[in-house]
Specification:
The protein has helices spanning 52-57, 64-74, 98-114, 120-135, 141-148, 182-195, 197-220, 223-239, 245-256, 281-291; strands spanning 7-18, 29-44, 82-88, 152-154, 161-162, 169-175, 261-265, 272-276, 294-300, 314-316. By secondary structure, the chain is of the alpha+beta class. Strands 1, 2, 3, 4 and 5 form a five-stranded antiparallel beta sheet that branches. It binds (3R)-3-hydroxy-3-methyl-5-(phosphonooxy)pentanoic acid (PMV). (3R)-3-hydroxy-3-methyl-5-(phosphonooxy)pentanoic acid binds at residues 16, 20-21, 23-24, 95, 97, 135, 138-139, 141-142, 182, 186, 266-267.
Amino acid sequence: MAGGWVARGAAPGKVILLGEHAVVYGHPAIALPIPQQIMVELRQRQVRSPQLQGVTGANGRVPLAQLLKHAGSSLGLNTDNLDVTVTAGFPAGMGLGSSAALSVALLRALAHYAGVRLSLSELCAHAFTLECLFHGQPSGIDNTTVVYGTLLRFVRGWPPKPITAGAPLPLAIVLGNQPRQTRVLVERVRKQREACPRDTDRSFAAIAALVEQAEAALVAGDLAELGRCMNENHEILRSLGVSTVELDFLATECRRFGAYGAKLTGGGGGGAVVCVCPEQREAILRHYQILGFRAFALDWNPFERGANERHAVWQSTL
Ligand code: PMV
């Protein structure tokens, strides 16, 4: 197989529906995978990846060679003779989990290469150590969602709990024009908590209460209630200082066009907005495309076979 790939791995990105930032401090959050993936191919010979800058440069700035070495050593493999190619199906630095997807795809490719079978919890644990290279001290929600590939409730340090939604989830994702680094935003919130512990913890507790209400709404298939929880979660994130003029604009426009709820997703400070929009989704997507934003539909269908097992079932228009 000279010149061809010797092993491959792929992993999806993710969207946080509610609970970001509070999740770092032990509160629950809800997330689901997106269909867009990052794919890694391994070849014999030197590390060389033209797409490398696009994937790792915009977010945590971890050189691919370093990531490969860490991933290899966590599996007990010498990776000196491996060449890596990365193909990204979605942009980095947008809160869509590119670093987690890259880490998981790389680990899957290395496991394939070595003929090793990793359980989901092993893969998740290895991916978490790689995520720490990008983000310092992440909660683990990104790598967990990417590995388990389903709609889930996550609490730091606990196994994820899949959520069986009572109705299909018609979502839309709108990408802003400002990439950012999760690590910077998490640090900003940490400093704010140091300065105002009582207020910040009160905000986290309010987010946690919304996560509980949103989980009940998801199970009941109550999209209006889910939207209300998302709107309120956005306001609290705004008060924590992680929204931006652009993200507020994107969320407000989604609601104006009939979305039941809209909020920033991920660390904030730029990145993307997620909205639940059972009625006017085509209009919303068209509106943003006219304004020059990238936007795509994301359908989570709990009634498809296997939706709450290992693989997500989805459709997307990206
Ligand atoms: O990587 P992002 O931007 O999706 O953010 C992850 C969510 C945070 O709660 C902000 C950080 C974390 O580690 O949970």
